[in-house]
């Protein structure tokens, strides 16, 4: 039965940081009261933002799967028996002028695992592309290697030498009767 449960965001501090040149607020502790008795205290010092802004986080939780922002304050406390998660949490400590929040300082980090893996993959692809371009730029033209080869010499043959070679091939491939017919037709054509 959770009817007697109340959560109090009690302790907040406002500190001026010279390096940032402005005041920052910090949510120091979160208290859980059940049936009007104090049950648990969580330290929440990782919940902070400039005093001119509000603080926003998708999950403020004591669970490790949500990047534990609420840490049990002591081992003797009952906080270890409680798990608390605020979803779409937003708080503004100071400079509250209306019922709306001012610009929020978000808890999400810039380098999430997905963004980091995307950057690493892009870097690898860029290196492969640079290597490929380097190899293409340094290709040698293939004609340069052919210029140094010697030319092939084909001796000129007379028409009579070609006919004799042709007849020898016919004799080698054909029958002697075919050769006689070819030789007689050759002699007739000369006359």
Automatic annotation (TrEMBL):
Keyword Membrane assigned: yes
GO molecular function annotations of the record: ATPase activator activity
Compartment(s) of residence: Membrane
Chief localization: membrane
Entry GO terms, CC: proton-transporting V-type ATPase complex
UniProt keyword list: Membrane, Transmembrane, Transmembrane helix
Transmembrane segments: 110-133
Residues of the V-type proton ATPase subunit S1/VOA1 transmembrane domain: 109-146
Pfam families named in the record: Ac45-VOA1_TM, VAS1_LD
Family: Belongs to the vacuolar ATPase subunit S1 family.
Protein name per UniProt: ATPase H+ transporting accessory protein 1 like a
Species: Sinocyclocheilus grahami (Dianchi golden-line fish)
Upper lineage: Eukaryota, Metazoa, Chordata, Craniata, Vertebrata
């Amino acid at each position: 039965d959770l009817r007697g449960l109340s959560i109090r965001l009690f302790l907040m501090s406002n500190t001026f940081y010279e390096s940032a040149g402005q005041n920052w607020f910090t949510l120091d502790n979160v208290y859980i009261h059940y049936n009007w008795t104090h049950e648990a205290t969580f330290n929440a010092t990782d919940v902070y933002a400039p005093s001119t802004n509000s603080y926003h986080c998708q999950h403020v939780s004591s669970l490790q799967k949500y990047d534990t922002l609420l840490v049990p304050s002591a081992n003797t406390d009952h906080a270890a028996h409680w798990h608390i998660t605020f979803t779409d949490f937003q708080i503004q400590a100071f400079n509250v002028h209306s019922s709306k929040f001012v610009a929020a300082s978000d808890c999400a980090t810039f380098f999430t695992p997905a963004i980091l893996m995307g950057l690493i993959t892009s870097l690898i692809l860029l290196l492969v592309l640079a290597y490929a371009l380097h190899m293409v730029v340094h290709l040698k033209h293939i004609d340069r290697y052919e210029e140094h080869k010697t030319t092939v010499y084909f001796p000129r043959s007379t028409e009579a030498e070609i006919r004799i070679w042709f007849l020898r091939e016919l004799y080698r491939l054909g029958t002697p009767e075919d050769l006689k017919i070819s030789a007689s037709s050759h002699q007739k054509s000369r006359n």
